[in-house]
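User: Show me an example of a complex going from sequences to structure tokens.

Assistant: Sure. Here are the input components:
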Amino acid sequence: MTDNPILKVSKVSKSFGGIAAVMHVSIDLCEGDILGVIGPNGSGKTTLINLITGFVKKDSGHVFFKGRDITRLGAHRIADIGIARTFQVMRPYYSLSAYKNLVIPLNSPRVKRSTGGRLGDRDAVAIDLLEEVGFERDTYVPYKVTSALPLGYLKRLELARCLALKPEIIICDEVLSGLSMSEIATMVPLLEKLHIEGITIMMIEHRLRELFQLTNKVIVLDFGEKIAEGTPREITANERVIEAYLGTGRV
Amino acid sequence: MPQEDRRKKRLDRGVKVRTEGIYAISAPRDIAYLLIPRLVLILGLLILPLLLQNIYWQKVLCIICVFGLLSLSFNFLTHFVGIVNLGNAFFVGVGGYTSAVLQSSFKLSPVLSIIAGTFGGALISTTLLLPCLPARGIYFAIASLMYPLLFPRIIEALNIFGGTDGVIGITTFPNIWVDQYLVIIVLLVTLFALRRLVNEDFGLILRGIKDNDQAIRASGIGVTWYKTQGLFIASAIGCFTGAYLVHLYGWAGISLFGLDFSIFPIAVSVVGGSGALVGSVVGSLILVPMSETLRAFGTLRIMIYCLILVGFITLKPEGLMRYFTRKYEQFEHWTRV
């Protein structure tokens, strides 16, 4: 592990009312890594993502991106500097067709800056992106209204919306859940490809088999606290993790 | 043929290409298919003043266009920006008063004072609504409903802008033809400009905000700035109608903030077809003359009017324009089963 993580989360906390959703969680995410985040339902995984990406205000703690303090930045500013995220509950623009969904991020300030405002035909770029995530190019699927697309395509559209920004970090919130085995079989290589291309990935996942196949570093949350960190092998042997998932033996 | 062994078969017309806005047309028949409805609307509205001999109905036509514009503004905000604005009268009032005050204090020409009323008024009303903008859905709706209730009371209490008497002695238009053609042309230009706008990249972002503002933020785009621009466009349309009405009547009063201007445009866009911009124009062409014709019924007018509206909403909730568009784009014929 290098000493200089690209994303450093330092003791962030958030409570809703009296309930602590995330408590003093620290994460170091190194460039080019894939980090898995697991934990039982309600353990604060999605809140943690919302805190990092600025969708929810932090009660305390700091987030640094490449050494820069981004704790107080708004959600769109954080996306603008290169941290893209997907949503667990997919958030496509249902009234637009699939490729028009991507024309929107292609009009973002970040993309305009990186291309110098000369992106050319945005529709064509959008279709290319859709093909990259597995939409069949020469069919009508990319032109279909999003509300008529099946779940697997919507998940991939979420990912494509992130890729449109050419981000440095992608934070995936359960991109594999709800997919069929064959859809997973195409999604996992896609994530591997992004990893090889040098994008840093942090993924929340319930599908441990696929997650462990992708990553060698996992952190475990339970009741808002980080209870374990390590390789998949260490995690599966950790007593506190087993306890969190299965409960203690005592009744 | 007996009822049992036949059914209605529907086919989409081939010319309607699935990708929005991209048409591959070669045959004159296909071009005519697309052009005729548009030409009927444009030429129809332009010829209508010549057909109406009666000055009363010519004035009604002006009001039709005014409510058409207000309904366009409402329709645009609701269905393409995702802001439900119940305070259309606020735009009318602010635009009207801005124009009237400028006209009476600086003796501006009507052209200048209408332009100033439109854009100055839009600037003022957008700025005043800015604090409410983070509120979504019903919360913005209620806040916006308060604005047109608030301002007449301020004008009354402080006795500014002529108080309850209003601003009088405003230059009117030279003749009835200017009255009509000014507002008709503005209506047509606004309609087609908005239709173009919502399919441009800028419009796509606005529609994205309506569908899902979180995803817009996750795409690195600031929601508030785009919402503000959408609000400015809608309020400019509303303020134009105010400025126009002031010059039509030669008078600006607190009735410009009246509830009619807030609620009637909503009824117009529901009848015409929510989400279809042209529905606003069609709805106004139906509802305003209907409201005038019903005057013959005296006190029963409101009752009949309400019943017709309720009928429209329960029987054709999608609105007339959506229904007609669908029928126009399909072939229908009976086939033997």
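The lines above are the inputs; the final block is the predicted structure for all two components together. The interface with chain A takes residues 18-20, 201-202, 204-205, 207-208, 210-212, 214-223 of chain B (CB under 8 Å).
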